[in-house]
Design goal:
The chain is built from eleven helices and no strands. It has 272 residues and is mainly α. It starts with a helix and ends in a 12-residue tail after the last helix.
Amino acid sequence: MTRHAPAARYALGAALVAVPLLLAVLGPLAAGPAGPRTVSFDPAAGPLGSDFAGRDVLRQILLGGRSVVLVALAATTLAYLVAVPLGLAAALTRRAWVEEVLMRPLDVLLAVPTLLLVLLVAATLAPGPVGLTALVGAAAVPDAARVVHATAAEIAARPAVEALRMQGESWARTALGHVARSMRRTLAADAGIRLTGALYLVATAAFLGAGVAPDAADWAVMVDRNRTGLFLQPWAVVVPALLVAALSMGTNLLFDAALRAPVPAPSKGDRP
């Protein structure tokens, strides 16, 4: 692999991610007021035609990114805000019963299919965007916490951590200052997978109508509701599907490039 490969991955990943992110953040500001509805699946109605309800597809795309992109990003962040302290606490404790109390309930949740759990709760409570964020984030906590716990437990067994304990360093300094910093590459790799999984859950829940109104301006809902007219007016399905795929692929390329980037060797002045 050439030394230019990470830079190429960065460029391609950034290009793929930038489009859906910009549409999610700035799209609603550029959407403008809703115009009159036309015939369903009319390819001549506007730049991208009309959807199943006769609405302008371009305007629906500008409005439909926040409910997918921002919910997935917020859910991934929420999952790590819970999973990292939980995994670190279980890995660094010297009491076996504390580790069991923290980790065993997560094993029970792992036995339940994540998508089934999300759909059951969303269909029962109709959570909306905020509730869907909390639900997808909570569903990702067990698996993320196990990754954090396994990685932190290996680092905690190293002599450097024992030395910090013998010096009387606080738990926070040991856990956050050394262990968490040492596992940042593992967390970066897992974050790319976790964000893709969150996108899958959010998009699938919206596709199945869980937590999102059936006529909402949402990329996943657009794919579902407009697929009956795929051969009449394909842009109503193809464009939102490509945007979701671009965000997922671009995110993985960015994390992959970051992990493949060479670590600079310490200078002579830094060596003991």
